[in-house]
């Protein structure tokens, strides 16, 4: 049995005046430790799918299981990292990264120490007593990553976590997140509009079409790229070939969505 399964998920957003089908017949399986990316035109339901997996939204039809358990409500098995870091400005970095543990009643001395060790591992050992406004955007996102990992989630959901950063910081964080997730053998799902990011970080890429959102194609990343850090993967000849292929695929889907 796969670690994560999404079985026949459909979702319709209903308002007073209309109903919009956001997702249709979404079926996918993810193995433990895999890094999966979702690409597709704007409005194809990528974030909606992530929200359903996190149990923030209940699907109109279908089900999600993680490690064999039906997902019906939010819990600490799932970590969610967004474009904005959403650190509490009035709390220190140490207080911010341990807040999840505090909420679930598991802020032990050992778990606090583990958080501080994670903070050190990503190069922020000297900022634990500082406040978010004293940190750069990249440093804040690194702190947000520690907060996400603090509760030891089984799966991480990443919704464009690097898109607000400058390009150099983005590339550095890609490498850092890639290394951390591999080290801790975490399963991760990334929503992104960046084709290069998806290729450099992923084991597989799911392409979604829109109106409604469906899985159009699945691309397996070559082993030669999967073994490299994202920064080095971007320099591999197969990276350019795959980039062009995905660019054409997404361009066709974008044109099709505008016609429809």
What can you see in these coordinates?
The chain has 260 residues and is an alpha/beta fold. It folds into 2 domains: 4-77 and 154-259, P-loop containing nucleotide triphosphate hydrolases (Rossmann fold, 3-Layer(aba) Sandwich), CATH 3.40.50; 88-152, no CATH class. Helix content is 38%, strand content 24%. It has helices spanning 46-53, 93-97, 99-103, 109-121, 137-150, 167-183, 195-201, 223-226, 230-233, 237-259, and strands spanning 4-14, 19-30, 35-39, 61-66, 69-70, 78-81, 155-159, 187-191, 204-209, 214-220. A 6-stranded mixed β-sheet has the order 6-7-8-3-9-10, sandwiched between helices. It has a 4-stranded antiparallel β-sheet with strand order 2-1-4-5, covered by helices on one side. Strand 4 (61-66) and strand 5 form a beta hairpin. Helix 7 crosses helix 10 (237-259). It is globular and about 55 Å long. The termini are far apart. The model has no long low-confidence stretch (mean pLDDT 90). It holds the Pfam family ABC_tran. Residues 4-235 form the ABC transporter domain. Keywords: ATP-binding, Nucleotide-binding, Transport. GO terms for molecular function: ATP binding. It comes from Metabacillus fastidiosus.
């Amino acid at each position: 049995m796969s670690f994560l399964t999404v079985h026949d998920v459909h979702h319709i957003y209903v308002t007073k005046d209309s109903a919009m089908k956001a997702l249709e017949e979404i079926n996918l399986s993810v193995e433990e430790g895999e890094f999966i990316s979702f690409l597709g035109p704007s409005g194809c339901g990528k974030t909606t799918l992530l929200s359903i997996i996190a149990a923030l939204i209940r699907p109109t039809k279908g089900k999600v299981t993680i490690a064999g358990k039906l997902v019906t409500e939010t819990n600490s098995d799932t970590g969610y990292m967004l474009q904005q870091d959403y650190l509490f400005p009035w709390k220190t970095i140490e207080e911010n990264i341990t807040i999840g543990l505090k909420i679930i009643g598991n802020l032990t001395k050992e778990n606090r120490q583990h958080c501080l060790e994670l903070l050190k591992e990503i190069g922020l050992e000297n900022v634990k007593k500082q406040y978010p406004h004293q940190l750069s955007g990249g440093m804040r996102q690194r702190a947000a990553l520690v907060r996400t990992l603090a509760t030891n989630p089984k799966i991480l959901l990443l919704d464009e976590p690097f898109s607000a950063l400058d390009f150099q910081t983005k590339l550095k964080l890609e490498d850092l997140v890639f290394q951390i997730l591999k080290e801790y053998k975490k399963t991760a799902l990334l929503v992104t509009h960046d084709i290069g990011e998806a290729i450099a970080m992923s084991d597989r890429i799911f392409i979604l079409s829109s109106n409604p959102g469906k899985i159009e194609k699945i691309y397996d990343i070559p082993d030669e790229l999967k073994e490299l850090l994202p920064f080095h993967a971007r320099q591999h000849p197969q990276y350019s070939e795959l980039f062009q292929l995905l660019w054409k695929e997404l361009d066709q889907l974008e044109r099709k969505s505008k016609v429809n």
